[in-house]
Amino acid sequence: MNVRDSEHIIAELKEKENYELTQDIGEADLILINTCSVREKPVHKLFSEVGAFEKAKKAGAKIGVCGCTASHLGSEIFKKAPYVDFVLGARNISKITTAVNTPKFVSTDINYDESDYAFGEFRGSPFKSYINISIGCDKKCTYCIVPHTRGDEISIPMSLILSEAKKAADSGAKEIFLLGQNVNNYGKRFSNAHEKVDFSDLLVRLSEIDGVERIRFTSPHPLHMDDKFLEVFSKNPKICKSMHMPLQSGNTKVLREMKRGYTKEWFLDRALKLRSLAPDVSISTDIIVAFPGESDDEFADTMDVIEKVRFEQIFSFKYSPRPLTKAAEFGNQIPENVASARLTHLQNRHNEILDEIVKAQNGKIFDVYFEELRANGGVAGRSFNNFLVQVQGSEELLGKTLKVKVDNPKRMVLYGNLA
Ligand code: 5AD
Ligand code: SF4
Fold first, then answer.
1. Is the pLDDT of residue 377 over 90?
2. Last residue of a domain, one of 78, 107, 136
3. Domain, as residue range, for 381
4. Which cofactor does it need (predicted)?
């Protein structure tokens, strides 16, 4: 989502203020940092990074702080880093042109409605197009700062999404990647009158666009994975067979304290139904270990779900108390050494599972959409079910979808040859 926000900012500055991108910090007239605040570590990094920018920048160059940390710290950022010129929250990026022209501009309003703002055109990759389908999140999970930095959820009008997808397809991007905090809640609230649609309807409409060959999205919420959604996901031939299912915890009591809205059994039922409807699907997840009060037995439930679902990919984190969140006030915060031990245990076991999954890919043939030149001379792309696959080759493969036979599968990359 931050990548897409950065693309929107770049588009606005190029089209309305005549800026051009540079990677040379000494040449830049404006240095922007787009921040995350979901865990504490990136917030600390912000201040060391802007300090380094201040030293490296040319005289008179401006520094702007954007994104979720901008939303939650606001003008506090000037106190710690007085050389910062403006602060623009994650829900206020349409004001970037005002920000660059107004000394000490601060805008962090989380009620601000950007849902039907038509941003300019800029994409980092010609091969795929990120498209926002909603802003904000209504869920208020007790550990999560996002609803406090991105505000309540508003869906973007379907006509805007369809026209962005058409434009992307016309320019040759075969893949669209839909973005939202909670994509399968799409259609719950629009800021203006709108026909009744849900996420499954949106997926079907997008799949009818000529030139759109692959549709991906993130993140769906396990609670909203109803049968209609799983059916559309599994049957529609343009929807990539890779699902992110953020588990967070495998224990029903912990899930209740996190306010996730589902039980261990519901999650397992949905994941296993998905595997039976779409046997090639790869499922990824997010897991938080050592949520306040999590006992060894409760953590064992998380491990049990890992054994049963055998996720193709896991993003795992130690719980990090965040300002403005309910869980930060809970008693029973778990000691650091226990949290680290749980994280290591989970990651080690998952690596074993992953090694088995990866080994089983040997000899398989995948349709790979090539989109990236690799530093070691290869060309890489994603299989329909989201494995990163690499072959020897050059630019001429980019933008093509070709069959690859895997003969050397590794954890991060499946190596193979054009079939
Ligand atoms: N501590 C640790 N991990 C967190 N996440 C969100 N908030 C926290 C927190 N306070 C994780 C969740 C989420 C992912 C984007 O970041 O797993 O799905
Ligand atoms: Fe945060 Fe929960 Fe919303 Fe995801 S669904 S952004 S974890 S509040």
1. no
2. 107
3. 364-418
4. [4Fe-4S] cluster
> Does 113 reside within a domain?
no
Same domain for 293 and 348: yes
Convert the pLDDT of each residue in 378-404 to its tens digit. Answer: 999 999 999 999 999 999 999 999 999
Ligand closest to CA 141: 2
Mean per-residue pLDDT, 246-260:
98
**CA 268 to centroid of chain Cα atoms:** 23
Instruction: Indicate which CATH number applies to the domain containing 404.
Output: 2.40.50.140
What is the distance between the alpha carbons of residues 338 and 330, in angstroms, rounded to a whole number? 17
The answer, yes or no, to whether any atom of ligand 2 lies below 6 A from the CB of 182, is: yes
Indicate the pTM of the whole model. Answer: 0.96
Which atom of ligand 2 is found nearest the CA of 145? 1
The reply to whether 344 and 383 lie within a common domain is: no
User: Is the predicted pLDDT of residue 157 greater than 90, yes or no?
Assistant: yes
Q: pLDDT by residue (tens digit) across 51-99? A: 999 999 999 999 999 999 999 999 999 999 999 999 999 999 999 999 9
Residue 114 belongs to a domain: no
Tokens 């602060």 -> residue: 87
How far is 142 from 256, CA to CA, in rounded Å? 10
In a domain, 115, yes or no: no
Clarify whether residues 371 and 354 are in a common domain: no
**Which residue is listed with tokens 């880093």?**
81
Q: Is 330 in the pocket of ligand 1 (CB under 6 A)?
A: no
Task: Check whether residue 241 and residue 260 sit in a common domain.
Answer: yes
Give residue 21 CA to ligand 2 midpoint distance, Å.
32
Of 1, 2, 38, 43, best ligand 1 pocket probe by most atoms within 8 Å of the beta carbon: 38
Kindly state whether residue 120 falls inside one of the protein's structural domains: no
DSSP string, 168-232: HHHTT--EEEEE-TTGGGTTS--SS------HHHHHHHHHTSTT--EEEEE---GGG--HHHHHH
Q: Is 181 in the pocket of ligand 1 (CB under 6 A)?
A: no
Question: Is the minimum distance from the CB of 325 to ligand 2 under 6 angstroms?
Answer: no
